[in-house]
Amino acid sequence: MGDAVELFRPGEDVFYCGTFTRSGANADCHLVDERMVGKKPSSLSFAEAAALPLTSLTAWQLLFDRRGVRMGKPPGAGSLLIVGAAGGVGSILIQLARRLTGLTVVATASRPETQDWCRRMGAHHVIDHSRPMPPQIAALDIPPVSCIASLTQTAKHLAALVEIVKPHGKLGVIDDHDHFDAAPLKAKSVSLHWEMVFTRPLYQTADLIGQHHILTEISELVDAGILRTTMTRCLTPFSPDTLAEAHRIVESGGMIGKIVMSR
Amino acid sequence: MGDAVELFRPGEDVFYCGTFTRSGANADCHLVDERMVGKKPSSLSFAEAAALPLTSLTAWQLLFDRRGVRMGKPPGAGSLLIVGAAGGVGSILIQLARRLTGLTVVATASRPETQDWCRRMGAHHVIDHSRPMPPQIAALDIPPVSCIASLTQTAKHLAALVEIVKPHGKLGVIDDHDHFDAAPLKAKSVSLHWEMVFTRPLYQTADLIGQHHILTEISELVDAGILRTTMTRCLTPFSPDTLAEAHRIVESGGMIGKIVMSR
User: Fold this and answer.
1) CB pairs under 8 A between A and B
2) What 8-state DSSP symbol labels residue B36?
3) Domains in chain A: ranges and CATH
4) Which of A76, B131, B172, B197 could make an SS bond with B149 (beta carbons 3.0 to 4.6 A apart)?
5) CB distance from B188 to chain A under 8 Å?
6) pLDDT digits (tens, 9 = 90+) for B156-177
7) What is the pLDDT of residues B194-222, one digit of tens each?
8) Partner residues linked to B173 by β-bridges
9) Is A257 left (phi over 0), alpha (psi -120 to 50) or beta?
């Protein structure tokens, strides 16, 4: 532990997501800036805790920082549509939105097991993104869709999302695009919110310590029983073979929650 | 005046911007929904007042509603860069940001007369968008550029704007684009805010009356001497010839402020 560390004592258990500007993601040991580290939830195993930081930071920053959604349950909070909600980010975003905000949470998932998982995470409603979404939304008795979080295959769904979103609504996006044509958002004056979880470390922003604060809050919410881990599988031992197996599972596109590797 | 009108009495002087879903923009008489109408500033002539509604609504909604900038002068408010600031929207946006917020206002204009106009509207600094902008911004002793309002030729300036904007900053855009590639905004998690002033009437939103409230506030700020008209020319009489002349002037691309036609 470095001499200048102020937020932690030697021997404390921590969790964090790191940064792609430093090597070590698949290694036994990493070096990490303390401003990006939180106290590990004491109620979770190391593997269960390891499932959370990357996705929790992404979901938290997208929901509260990028879009400015307020915590609490104010009247007229509208609905949040989460596209591709059974994956890692969706699984924690459903929980955050359902437990900490007044938004009506509509998740999308295309298989019975992913739909069931989204309901268990806390979604008020689940629709199927492999079928036309606007009529499924119209059939629900919910407030207007003021926020959308599109977590995967945004380009494929964009026309439907523009149709669904309320005028002056907010579209949050986290997936990668060579090009992203935002012109169709103009008529409804819809805002586009990118969330790239590595923006703070990449640009060494003045508020880098914000990631410490978020992870600390996530940890407390887990220990209070308000949030749960999104780990659905744990592969052992920590070896090149299990690493390759983990990549095969993730790349299959059928992930539910988060897969973790452990010693 | 319709029987159901509640916000105005017969004979009251009003100003408004109308909607492109109703005919009449170049006619003597229009029909307009009262929820989009405000009381005319009593300190201005009809021509001076007519310069304001379309641009004031666009600038107000972009600044306060789309981006969530707060009124008042909080510390750490950052800087607002307004690209193409000498036109109609820029001329009122400079005033709103300078008088009602704590943002440091940097306007861009490429000619001595437009640069001088931006300073008279209230810009703290003026830079030249016909020369590379990042070094000009870097040479100013200002807070980070947290907000950009790009009012014209956004495609031409986009790479420079992405370089200038602070991580997690906000880019507001009002000009028309066949395609608008928003992918370059991802690395800094920059939000894109469209403002299309006709979104409320086009979609008959529940908050349509918001335009009445904004115009009423604009009117009061004008009469209090806080905002001034942006009219720079008034063409008379109201005829097909002067209408054609007005279009020629606007289409020349060299407009300062707003041109008005009057009887």
Assistant:
1) 91
2) G
3) 14-55+199-261 (3.90.180.10), 74-194 (3.40.50.720)
4) B172
5) yes
6) 999 999 999 999 999 999 999 9
7) 999 999 999 999 999 999 999 999 999 99
8) B150, B194
9) left
